Amino acid sequence: MKKFVTAALLAGATSAFAAGQFSPLFSFEGVFSKPTTATGTTSSFINASMEYTYPRSLSVYGGVSFILRDSFETGGHVGMRFYTPTPLFYVNGSAPVWSYLGAGVNVLDDVAFYPEAGFRIGLTDDTRIDLFMKVYNSNDTAYDRHATIGVGLTF
After folding, report:
1. What domains are there in the chain, each with its CATH number?
2. What are 112-135's pLDDT values in tens digits?
3. pLDDT over 70 (residue 15)
């Protein structure tokens, strides 16, 4: 039953009449917490993505990741986010703020999955700032249980 409901929600959100918007998305994530068993010194992630935002509170994105650790590493990532249908509140009465939950995967030497939670602030119709948190899960101890706080810009 859960698979049917998920498929119905995704089919409705991605239907042909749901004309959305493509936008570049750039983000920076800094590691603020990692386990004592971590190997290496992963310190930050820089992501360059292309995002497609549907009008029905869903977005999908994918791109490249640049990871700063003992050595420089690159990889790819894909993910999706579910936003609140209406803004939670407005900053200064004019900038809407939505919350979101998402999930994604970074394809590095080893695959790293992550859930994410954050806020999206709409500065203009085309420019948005994201403030988010991710927790990576992987078989590679260089990324496993690393929590990051990040900021992103979409325009």
Report:
1. 22-154 (2.40.160)
2. 999 999 999 999 988 999 999 999
3. no
Structure token digits, residue 101: 């939950």
Question: What percentage of the chain reaches a pLDDT higher than 70?
Answer: 88
- Are 74 and 67 in contact by the 8 Å Cβ rule? The answer is yes
Query: Do 133 and 2 form a contact (C-beta atoms < 8 A)?
Result: no
User: CA nearest 38: which of 133, 148, 143?
Assistant: 143
Return the residue matching tokens 């249980």: 145
Supply 7's token pair: 């498929």
Which tokens is 52 given?
Answer: 């497609």
Tokens of 63: 């791109």
How far is CA 1 from its chain centroid? 27
Report the alpha-carbon distance of residue 19 to residue 17 in Å, rounded.
Answer: 6
